[in-house]
Amino acid sequence: RSLQDLGAGxxxxxxxxxxxxxDQNPESAxxxxxxxxxxxxxxxxxxxxxxxxxxxxxxxxxxxxxxQLGYVQHAMKQSAAAAVGPYEQAVALEPGxxxxxxxxxxxxxxxxxxxxxxxxxxxxxxxxxxxxxxxxYYLGAAQLKASRFKEAAAALEKxxxxxxxxxxxxAFLAWSYFGLKDATNFKAHGAK
Length: 192
Hints:
The protein has helices at residues 2-7, 11-24, 29-41, 45-58, 63-76, 80-93, 98-110, 114-125, 134-145, 149-162, 167-179, 183-190. The protein is mostly helical. α5 (63-76) packs antiparallel against α6, α9 (134-145) runs parallel beside α11 and α11 (167-179) runs antiparallel to α12. It is elongated and about 65 Å long. The relative contact order is 0.07.
């Protein structure tokens, strides 16, 4: 019921129910994961970290708990380096999960590990049926940061084909064309 409350935006009810459940079952990784997700929804990074670290300690093979821990470190705490380990664990546990692998690639990019980021993100974009824009975007960002402008432009063009209203991708694409000394495309994408 708590996850239904969370899905309905009733985070206070979900927090109350899951806190009570956690107090009754302190060794339940599933409850800790649920409570961590509620804390994420409440934008309480410190509370989420406590619960997710305990969930991972109780069940290190829980890929979702590892992913959520990485998410808190990366997106909420702005620590890409701290996110890499949990994301790597999530990917190791569920290698076919493109969300986990894309998040790992993004954290690797932000942590300055461009070659590893490109490797992970290329696995996502090469996945049969992959139709998202995120992996293409992060792949383009990694290539741009590595000064591989041609590869960056190709990836960012694919991201924009799926999500044409992405201003950050347009800016990165403009800088890729700048690196390629292509003034026409630099101006065209820089003006968007």
